[in-house]
Amino acid sequence: MSETGKPRTSGRGAVTGHVPVLLPEMLRFLSPRDGAIYLDATFGGGGYARAILQSAECTLWAIDRDPDAIARGAQLARLFPGRLHLIEGKFGDMLSLLAAHGVDALHGIVFDLGVSSFQIDAPERGFSFRADGALDMRMGREGVTAAELVNTISERALADLLYKFGEERAARRIARAVVRARNGGQITTTARLAAIIRGVVVPDRSGIDPATRSFQALRISVNDELGEIERGLRAAAQMLLPGARLVVVSFHSLEDRIVKRFMADAAGRSPTPSRHDPRGHVSAQQPRFQLLTPRTIRPGAAETAVNPRARSARLRALECVAANERLSA
């Protein structure tokens, strides 16, 4: 973002820096209102947070595991005194994080999943192969780095990781090349790892860099992103009041699959068990949620033209229609 708060553009007119995707759609489904309390579970660059606070005289709590994001958010908090409250931590721990501040119920929650533009654009964070940097990939400041994974796990475990979290068909070939290369010296930079991958994977017609899926897989593994999403969604469902909305923006099929399944289950849209399945003879409880997006919401051509990173974004939303026993007790 520029110092004026507006996105910078390249010479070709494409937006660079942090630009929140599907912003009007997020606001439409979240529907912020005066006096309500909301959670931005993935603060990041603060784009969603700013828009929510500008759209209604509400209170917003915001969580991010990245201390850099929390530090950046201090300036935004000063613009909305007493209304924006920042918490460093994982959104999967939202119940305990918010309870520590006396918050146990919310009128809406938004998730913007995946890595933020600020993290991608910082070479020293190691998320991108487009600039050389340390092979880190941690969203926070704790835990195992990508370099530690690449240099220590077995060839088979690495291949499984690349296939499971990157859906990489050449996982075995890449793992073999990585192990062979690390025998000649540890792999510690994004440029070296990307070069190793490109040396054994031929670019396809999609135009996607051969290293893309492997970098995604390592990042997801380092940060336990899929497990965190599952924990975060379960926690969110426990905190929502009747009439509250849950809005989730995901960026790849692994994330979206979890969100889609969770929302279908919460809204009672899961397939009916077979009559031979004992579960089919148990009286179904009335679902606490209704699905607001029978079909996923995608960015339009105008948005993707100025912000290519929006191309893979998908939005899904739920509304709570019945009280949670935990909140009504």
Your description of this structure?
With 329 residues, this protein is α/β, with parallel strands linked by helices. The protein has 2 domains: 8-118 and 225-328, Vaccinia Virus protein VP39 (Rossmann fold); 119-223, DNA polymerase, domain 1 (Orthogonal Bundle). It is 40% helix and 14% strand. The chain contains 14 helices and 9 strands. The protein has helices spanning 23-30, 47-55, 67-79, 94-99, 117-120, 146-152, 155-166, 171-182, 190-198, 212-223, 225-239, 253-266, 301-306, 325-328; strands at 8-9, 15-16, 37-40, 59-64, 84-88, 106-112, 240-250, 289-291, 314-320. It has a 7-stranded mixed beta sheet, with helices on both faces. Strands 1-2 form a two-stranded antiparallel sheet. Helix 3 links the parallel strand 4 and strand 5 (84-88). Helix 7 (155-166) packs across helix 8, helix 7 packs across helix 10 (212-223) and helix 11 packs parallel to helix 12 (253-266). The protein starts with 7 loop residues before the first strand and ends with a helix. The relative contact order is 0.13. The model is unreliable at 1-16 (pLDDT under 50).
